[in-house]
Structure formats: structure tokens, C-alpha cells
């Protein structure tokens, strides 16, 4: 009897030992898979053959580690793939134009103001700039608008006239919007203009303004409805809520790069990278509507007198056009439009790069 019980106990102990051993062996296999390359950490320790090929093909892209590991790496003085700095886009490393405030105001030059803020808000900015130039015309200030030029070719011709001008140069403001420059193809115009100003001992101040995507979409809606003849509010709203109007939805990113009035179907990541590259190469100031005051920037650079304290204010009543109201479904469609045309990613990149939006990572 005792022998029988002993055999049962030995059998159970043996089975338990085999189970424990198997479990440990599987654990070691999962968390210690060798990739053949010690510098590439696995994801949860598991890398398939397909994953390994993918890692090798993206060898230059460092992994993004959890925040606690990045903080520890920075604390230890590491700057490589484990450092917080490598989490930020490589676009941060591009050269960036800056203005030396100790040399302001400049005595002469050209100010290029590029924006596609639609409706009354954009008109208020343009009108204020016109008024500022008129108020300072005794100092030789002039204003040239791409909208007034009527075509891009005519606008570029007027820019060329400025470069060909003989004698002493003062200040010219170029308003580039409709019929204005397209930075995907017109970077050479700004390059030649900057060289021309520097040869004269003057300066080119290129600035671009952008709106929050939601705010821009609301302004687009107001403008579309205002221009729509005999439009019924309910029908217009239902069409927008359904998403069928996205074919007409051109974002600021497309306007800035191409300025054709069409939606360009390139990969949004490619478009965002190109736009940020152009901004950092050619623009001295990148302003976000609601965060910056364009009037103060112009006065600071030129030393002009201001006819008013601020641009013309836009009242709440201006938000309503013919009974149009903004619905929850309409705002959801805005988000889809912004993701599709690249504005959401573009505005996010502007905040990160020009407003240090990820600074909190360094302080956690």
C-alpha cells in the first residue's frame, strides 16, 4: 500500500517538475530571442522574420522608447536613440531663419505676408495692412496685393519690378493670397528677392500666417455659404454633414504649397514635410492666428507708426451668416476633412516646431 502511494507521489512530483521546466523554457525563449544584432531591441522580445527584415530596412530610424526610459537616458547624459531629443522630428534639425531683435527696426526692405485665412477675418487683416501702409506712405511705403494683380504671373511681374527698381529703396508690402506664390514651385522668387534686398543693404521679411484647422474650417463654411446663391440652410448643412462636399475642401497646406485652388492627392506626410522645409528655408516669421499679432510684428520691423491699436475686431455676430449654425456632425466632418487634406498634421507640426509644443517631455 505504502509502495503504491509512493509511486503516485513520485509520478505527481515528476509531472510537476516537467511542467515547471517547460514553462521556464518557454519564458526564456520568448524574452531572449536572438535577432543576430544586439543593437536592435525586440518588441516584447518577439521578432518574426518579417519584423527583422523591416527593422534592418529602417536601420536609420531609432526606436521611440517609453517616457520613463527616455527620462532615465537623458539623466545619464545619453543623446542617441534613447534620448528625448530623438523623439522629435528630424525637421527640428533643419536650419531656421531668425530675426535679430537688436537690429530692429530695419531701414528698408520688402515684407511678404502670405496667408489664406478666408472670409471677413482674412479681409480684416488685409484691410488693416493696407491702412498701415497708407498711414506711412510719407516714408515711401507701398502695398502690392496678389488679389489685385488678378493672376500669379502679374503678381510675380510686379515683384520683378520691385527688384529692378533703381535708386533708394524704402518699404514695400506684398500681400500674397489668391493668385499669390506657391511655395512648392516659387521658392526661387523669394530667394532672388532676398538676394536683391541684401545687395541694396535692405531686408526681406517673409512671414506666413495659419489658422487652427477647426477655426479655418468654420471660416471656410461661412464663406462658402455666403457665396452660395439661393442656398437653403438645411440643405447646405445636410450636405456638409454628409461629407459630400469634401471635394471642394481645400486646406491651408494645399494653398500654401500649390495655391491652385485644387486638392493635391499626394501623401499628407510628404506634403507636411515639404511645407515645413520651405517655411524653415524661406520664412523669417511663422505666425498662428490667435497666438500672434501680425500688426505688432510689422511695426517692430519697420518702425512705422500705427493708425490703430489692433486689427479690426470680428464680433460674435459675424459668426452667423444667413441663419447658418454649426452642428456636432458638421464639426466631425471638419475633422475628417482636416485629416484628409493634411491640415491637422500640418498645424500639429507648426505647434511642435515653432511653439515648442513638446517641451513638457523634457520636464517630466
List strands and helices in order, with pairings:
Elements lengths: L1 H30 L17 H9 L9 H9 L33 E7 L3 H17 L6 E4 H4 L2 H13 L6 E6 L10 H14 L2 E8 L2 H15 L5 H10 L9 H6 L10 H15 L2 E4 L5 H9 L25 H14 L1 H13 L4 H4 L1
Parallel strand pairs: 1-3, 1-4, 2-3, 4-5
Helix pairs in contact: 6-7, 8-13, 9-13, 11-14
User: Approximately how much beta-strand content do the residues carry?
Assistant: 5-15%
The largest sheet is: 5 strands, parallel
Q: Which stretches are low in confidence, meaning pLDDT under 50 for 5 or more residues running?
A: 25-68, 80-89, 309-319, 359-364
Tell me the number of helical segments per DSSP (H or I, 4 or more residues long).
15
Number of strands: 5
Topology as a string of helices (H) and strands (E): HHHEHEHHEHEHHHHEHHHH
Look at the structure and give the mean pLDDT: 74
Compute the separation of the termini in Å.
68 Å
Helix content: 40-55%
Computed structural class: alpha/beta
The order of strands across the largest sheet is: 2-3-1-4-5
Amino acid at each position: 500500500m505504502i509502495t503504491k502511494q509512493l509511486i503516485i507521489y513520485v509520478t505527481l512530483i515528476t509531472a510537476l517538475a516537467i511542467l515547471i521546466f517547460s514553462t521556464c523554457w518557454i519564458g526564456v525563449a520568448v524574452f531572449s530571442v536572438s535577432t543576430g544584432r544586439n543593437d536592435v531591441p525586440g518588441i516584447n522580445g518577439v521578432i518574426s522574420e518579417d519584423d527583422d527584415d523591416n527593422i534592418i530596412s529602417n536601420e536609420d530610424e531609432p526606436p521611440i522608447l517609453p517616457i520613463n526610459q527616455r527620462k532615465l537616458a537623458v539623466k545619464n547624459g545619453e543623446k542617441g536613440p534613447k534620448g528625448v531629443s530623438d523623439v522629435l522630428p528630424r525637421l527640428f534639425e533643419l536650419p531656421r531663419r531668425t530675426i535679430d531683435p537688436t537690429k530692429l527696426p530695419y531701414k528698408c526692405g520688402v515684407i511678404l505676408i502670405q496667408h489664406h485665412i478666408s472670409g471677413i477675418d482674412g479681409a480684416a487683416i488685409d484691410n488693416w495692412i493696407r491702412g498701415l501702409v497708407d498711414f506711412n506712405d510719407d516714408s515711401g511705403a507701398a502695398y502690392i496685393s496678389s488679389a489685385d494683380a488678378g493672376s500669379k504671373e502679374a503678381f510675380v511681374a510686379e515683384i520683378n519690378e520691385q527688384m529692378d527698381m533703381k535708386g533708394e529703396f524704402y518699404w514695400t508690402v506684398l500681400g500674397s493670397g489668391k493668385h499669390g506664390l506657391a511655395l512648392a514651385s516659387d521658392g526661387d522668387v523669394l530667394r532672388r528677392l532676398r538676394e536683391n534686398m541684401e545687395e541694396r543693404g535692405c531686408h526681406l521679411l517673409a512671414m506666413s500666417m495659419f489658422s487652427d484647422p477647426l477655426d479655418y474650417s468654420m471660416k471656410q463654411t461661412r464663406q462658402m455659404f455666403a457665396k452660395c446663391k439661393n442656398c437653403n440652410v438645411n440643405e447646405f448643412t445636410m450636405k456638409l454633414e454628409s461629407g459630400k462636399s469634401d471635394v471642394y475642401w481645400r486646406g491651408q497646406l494645399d494653398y500654401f504649397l500649390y495655391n491652385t485652388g485644387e486638392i493635391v492627392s499626394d501623401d499628407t506626410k510628404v506634403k507636411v514635410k515639404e511645407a515645413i522645409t520651405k517655411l524653415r528655408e524661406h520664412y523669417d516669421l511663422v505666425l498662428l492666428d490667435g497666438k500672434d499679432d501680425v500688426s505688432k510684428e510689422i511695426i517692430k520691423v519697420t518702425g512705422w507708426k500705427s493708425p490703430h491699436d489692433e486689427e479690426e475686431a470680428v464680433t460674435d455676430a459675424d459668426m452667423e451668416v444667413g441663419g447658418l449654425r454649426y452642428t456636432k456632425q458638421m464639426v466631425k466632418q471638419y475633422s475628417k476633412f482636416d485629416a484628409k487634406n493634411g491640415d491637422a498634421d500640418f498645424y500639429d507640426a507648426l505647434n511642435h516646431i515653432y511653439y515648442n509644443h513638446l517641451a513638457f517631455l523634457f520636464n517630466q
